[in-house]
What we know:
The protein is mostly helical. The chain is 57% helix and 0% strand. The chain is elongated, with a radius of gyration of 34 Å.
Amino acid sequence: MEQDLKDIEWRLNALKERGVVESVPRNVQDFIDPPYEQVVDPTDDLIDQIVDSFMPDENPEDDEPLVTPDNPVSHVEALHALHEIATIWGTISMWNSE
Length: 98
């Protein structure tokens, strides 16, 4: 770490001598990680924000109970209907490819 800081300081001084930068911090370590700076880690707040962003909006309509249709369709009837649709769609697709 100490060698890295010396390398950074040397490179900054070289850039200053070439006129690329106007000034170089006196203490590179303090510039990179100021001792007076307090970092607050708001991980709890961040987690809450992420969870809230993926939660559905609360609508008054969501409080209404689900209504069961008068004539519910069985799984077998639904699968049979899907098979018929797939068969018709395959026929239409075949006609369009000719």
